[in-house]
């Protein structure tokens, strides 16, 4: 299965493991909650999906790579304790709490979240001294004398032996106590993830042309060469920073993330060509609906590779703006909750101080919530930015109230309302501009490429991209609706023709 299917399966399993009956007991007893074992090549996104699952379910996540653990750090350190048995005293070996188990309790204390996922990566690459204890752990959920707390689901991951020489095969008895998922790298699934994560468009446009370069692990005369999904994502981040700083991207940089000489050379050459396209095409003018005639002429005469690169540049710019608009909309919707409470307080009358005191409590509460979720690894980057934006609004507006002339709670809320309405108006104005630019993009693609594959790609990308789909559903887009309906009609016609052909004798 691919990583997306694995994520859905694990999410459902964790959700079911945490279901309780009317007495507050887990429907599936802890002893029957088989640990999940993800078996897949390195860098396919196993760790990333665990973070997503924790965020979606609102539970905590504790992650460990088992390759660096010794028997002592995993099980705890031994010490001698005196105990009495049958009226006689004996010296007994005990163990301090495992670092791993202790981390779970630390997260629970710091975040207040009592349930979560314990994710142990590279579980089948542990040291020889730790291996027997790991097998016991997988069977009984115990490290030394200390058990994993109830409400914590164990998910493990490892690499097949062809990717790692230190892999240890589990025996049948152990494997029979695990839920084993075989995961394979699949570009189509990663592409969807990349679109939502804002992966640099030069990476995705290159991989559209060279899908076979998405994931490669080979043994050559020079040793092991590899390209992984993790490598592409890390490369994307450094490319963005290099461009912001005006630094030169070369094979040396690319080779630090992609460990395959051929892929490094081809990607670097494509990157240089991509930068050339940026200069030759007028991206901003196209989105403004002011594309010069030369842009249309060049686009019509371009090869499919060049067309795809151009479309990728336009989509990257457009989707970046759309993500910003949706984050702003999410922030303003989230801000409505504390503002409604402030309105209720203002309607009761009283002094301005009551409003500012409540704003201070709201900001502090929001901070504590965000901090606890981050400590539990159950807060996405987007939600973190949303929390910070709400906190900043409350803190900044509170200071402005102190500096102003408001005396009553009603006066104070009136100023808060004006500030909020100004931000809403700004968001609506920005959204209108984004809609116009989206119209400019559709107009250019329609004129330059007509109803070709490029329009299909544009409509598809907007559909599968989370921010793009939400933007269109929230604010509408006539061009999208028109072309999407046309493409659907075309698909229905093709399907009908196919059905008719099957009827022919």
Could you please describe the fold and organization of this structure?
- Helix content is 62%, strand content 12%.
- The protein is α/β, with parallel strands linked by helices.
- The chain has three domains: 3-184, Rossmann fold; 187-280, no CATH class; 293-505, no CATH class.
- The strands form four sheets. A five-stranded parallel β-sheet has the order 2-5-8-1-9, with helices on both faces.
- Helix 8 (201-209) packs antiparallel against helix 14 and helix 13 packs across helix 17.
The major β-sheet equals: 5 strands, parallel
Total of domains: 3
- Helical amount: 55-70%
What best-fitting shape do the alpha-carbon axes yield? flat
Uncertain parts: 496-505
Q: What's the rounded overall pLDDT mean? A: 86
Which sequence of strands runs across the widest sheet?
2-5-8-1-9
- Tally of separate helices: 20
In terms of structural class, how would the helical and strand content be classed? alpha/beta
Distance between the termini: 39 Å
Portion of residues in beta strands equals: 5-15%
Count of extended strands? 11
Our Rg estimate from Cα atoms comes to 28 Å
